[in-house]
Amino acid sequence: MRTLLLLPALLFLAQPLYAQIIDIAGSTTVMAFMEPAAQAYRRMHPEVTINIRGGGSGAGAASVMDGRAMLGMMSREPEEPELARMHGIERVRVGYDAVAVVVSSAVYRSLPGHALSRGDVAAIYRGEVRNWQAVGGPDRRIITVDKVKHSGTRYVFVNYVLSDPHAAWATDSVIVDSNGEMETLVQISDQAIGFLPFGGTDRHLHAIGLMDQGRLFFPDAAHVRDGSYPLSRSLYVLHKKKVPDYARDFIAFLLSAEGQKILSASGYLPVK
Amino acid sequence: MPFGRIQDRLSAHTGRVIATLFFLLAGLVSWVSLGQIRQHELLTAARSLQGVNTLTARVLQKQSTEAIAEATSLSTNAPVHELMLALLGTGTDVPASRYALRLRLAAWLVSHDFRDFYLLGPEGRIRAGFRDADLGKVVAQGVLDTLGDVLHGEGLITHPVLIGDHDVQMWMMVPVYDQGGIAAGVFAVVLDKQRHFDETTGLGQFGASTETYLVDRQGRMLTASRFENQLIANGRLKEGQNSELNMLVHVSGSNQPTLAVAHMLDGPDGMSITPYPDYRGVPVIGVWQWDRLFDAAIISEMDVDEALAGYVQTRNLILMLLAGLLLAGLIVARSYARYRRRQERESNELRNLLLESTAEAIYGLDLQGRCSFANKACVRMLGYEAADDLYGRNMHLLAQHSHADGTSYDEQQSRIFSSLRNKTRMHCREEVFWRRDGSSFPVEFWSHPLFDDGGEVVGCVVTFWDISELRKAEAQRNRIEKQIQHTQRLESLGVLAGGIAHDFNNILSAILGNAALASRKVISDPLDARERMESVVQCCDRASVLCRQMLAYSGKGKFVIRQINLSSMVEEITHLLEVSLDKGVVIKYSLAVTLPLVEADEAQMQQLIMNLVTNANEAIGGKSGVISITTGVMHADAEYLMDCYGDIPVAGRYTYVEVSDTGCGMDAETRQKIFDPFFTTKFTGRGLGMSAVLGIVRGHHGALKLYSEPGKGTTFKYLIPASDELATGEHEALELEDQWRGDGRLVLVVDDEETVRETAMMMLEDMGFTAVGAVNGLEALALYRSRQKEIAVVLMDLTMPKMGGEECFRELRRINPDVRVVLSSGYSEQDAIQTFTGKKLAGFVQKPVSPARLKQVIHAAVGDE
């Protein structure tokens, strides 16, 4: 009995009074940025302990609401029922996950208007269009480059192009693991198409415009930020209105120039 | 103090030399050690470079082998191989096969860090690749050069080759065999930048300057230098260019290859720890080895500055340590020197104070006899103004040039010179020194030679003092002592006078009686008259002896030294001694028959013995006691003599006279004072006796030993140096006989002194009586009560303890009113009998008792019956 009474006291003592712990849970997409950001932050503030776990955007929102996590990560807009329950929860946009459709430079040069319609892209990826000639390009077979299924970039891409992440897919696509591999492949080939997060384009690699419902969207940051570019989503950090100062300080760090640089390096587009 | 200064200068100089030697040695040791450390550091660095080089070669080989294996495995994969053969041969539907091959290889290539692939025909034309545009082209020369080797079955990785204008690529190629096992073409992949040499050699970079790089046979660098920025800055490379293939490894600013490159091109693998300039012109140490697989040299180099960083740190530390040591040494040396100076100054001050404050004069001499220092007392005594008047001058010529009588005194014969010559201390009790004004004064001086460290004499210190006052005081003392002796002799004479007068009285009575009888009987009995006259003559002889002794005793101021026999002398004055004793005091003689003669004044000897005996007598204080006079000869050593009074004489054979008594003795306080003039314990004394004794002892260079304890008596032992001659004593005694006998009647002898009692008893028995003794009056009374009838007469001493003669006589009369008592006493008859007036005393005998007198008195006492 006495032991039971002592236990809380011991726990209280074992926990330093000034312990600063930030528990973060939610989207793995945001986590890809959050982890290096937390690492950098800890170097500056060794007194702060940051625990990060995944679980998905839904779990991120739920954890903050029931208090299991101080900060939640979300890589999509909250759904209606969620929004109803998220009373008193603040959403901070820390960046954008924007995806550009890229083609090999030989294709880009001969593609009229350097753009494809959403339908064309969908047809190419479904295997319905197999030669660039069919969409106004050179007479050359198309190599579709795809990424492994769990990729966040792929999710955004597929969700937009096919409106369904589980839609049927061209079977002879080249599937790569990373954006880097995707980039190399599209670069060295003269007939490939792929998709990459913003920023991964250079003179050998070209992002093309997208025609959707009669509008042409070029992949630039301004369009993403004003919400007009369709192939993008916002990355959020959620928190209750009342959070400790050190947690606020961490969020400020995420939004600072240094935090945004890390965000960029993680393949995302900074908020500014 | 020149001697001290020389010593100080010498020690300061030696100290400086030792310190310099120490620092030189420390510097030398440090220099040698630092050299060793430097060599060791360089060798250690070179060894680690060697390790880096070897490891780099191994890693490169391993990576190469693995990559080739991967490519080989892919190219032999059945569908891929089929497609390749199709494309290499003249198979159908080439574009379709090409597309299929691209699809098959795409994912593999990018996931394995390859950038591109080509399928080459044996002639070097591109049959397939990722881009249609490349088809049919001939590969670059660098690749083409190695194609033959590949077709012969060797998978390999090319050096970096320039593709196009600026693209540097490395290719890996494996042969593609047809069904017949003949190489139909080559499967080539372009290595991603990550697979280039410099990705591996970059692992060998450590520290600030160590790098590993590859160089081909032409001396071109095959890897990216870690110092690209420097190379661009000094124009060796263009902006944006790296050193891969773009730079010859030459010494900066010349056309000469660096030492490592020159050696690897024409020699075996090796290393250099002797610094040489590298391609930047910076001195480095390096190791190099030729790699046959890559046909290139692997070189690892490190800046000398970095290799020696540890050494430089150690060197600086040691230099700092040395500097610190030097500084500390200097500080310590300075402090010590200051401390020494202060100490020296203080000790000098103290020494000067001592020298100047002492009443004795002190001066120092060098070997030539010149004055090296002199204190104030010296300057003053010699009549000079200041010590400077003496410095450097010959002291013998100044102060000791002549003897007291004015005759010249040769320096060579002086004691100070002999102290220098013989290296010994010298002490001189009396010599004269001469003042500046030409007067002289007696001095006592000591000369101490001074020695240097080697034991050589460097001078001497002379200490002297003016003894004129001392001599005056001594003369005064001698005068006083003589006066005292004289006065004391007179005093002794007074003491003696009573006793002597009595003796003379007796003699005169005898002479008168005999003369009267003779005159009466000269006619009637001429024979008897003649006899009487003879007696008169005898009495006169005795009187003359007495007179002679008196004269001798008074001495008449004459101090005549002659050889005398102490035993004989004592015998001669026996009579004198005995008459001056109290009754009840017996002298016991124990005189040596043969005794060496001594040189002495007889009268003074007699006075000495008289005084000692008189004192002994008085110490006994009226009671009965024994005074022993012993003569003899003994050997006295210095220690024995140290304990004696008198001027301490030398050890040797001494004749002695010992006078001891059974008296009251003396306590320590009294013992200390007995020789002081006018100190006395007696009511009537003048306190001159013992001081006279000491004067005599001194006058004869003798010694006086004193033992005394309260209640245990006193012994004085006078020692006088013995001469070599012996003397023999002769004894002659004459006894007169009386025919009357005692007829066996009983006589009670009462005397507390056993000697006296026993002697008297012996005499009485000799006369025919029976004698019985009693120690005191009480015992006598008891005896008389028990043997009243037998006892014919009582011979009783007057003074006795417990019950004296007077009281006893009264008690005896109470028992028997007719008792016959003969009183014996040291007092004169008149004195004694006065006490007993009208008490019918049977007789009186004066002590000491002679047999004849006793017989006479006893006869008279009992003769009435």
UniProtKB/TrEMBL annotation, chain A:
- What Pfam families does the database record attribute to this sequence? PBP_like_2
What are the protein's UniProt keywords?
Signal
Give the InterPro entries listed for this entry.
Answer: PBP_domain, Phosphate_ABC_transporter
Signal sequence segment? 1-19
Q: Report the domain of life of the source organism.
A: Bacteria
Signal keyword on record: yes
Where's the PBP domain?
A: 22-258
> Which protein is depicted?
ABC transporter, periplasmic substrate-binding protein
Species name: Mariprofundus ferrooxydans PV-1
UniProtKB/TrEMBL annotation, chain B:
Major enzyme class:
transferase
| Keyword hit for Phosphoprotein | yes
What keywords is this UniProt entry annotated with? ATP-binding, Kinase, Membrane, Nucleotide-binding, Phosphoprotein, Transferase, Transmembrane, Transmembrane helix, Two-component regulatory system
Q: Which GO terms describe its biological process?
A: regulation of DNA-templated transcription
Ranges of residues in domain Histidine kinase: 499-724
Give the E.C. number(s): 2.7.13.3
Residue span, Response regulatory domain:
746-862
- This one is known as histidine kinase
Please name the source species.
Mariprofundus ferrooxydans PV-1
Q: What is the lineage of its organism?
A: Bacteria, Pseudomonadati, Pseudomonadota, Candidatius Mariprofundia, Mariprofundales
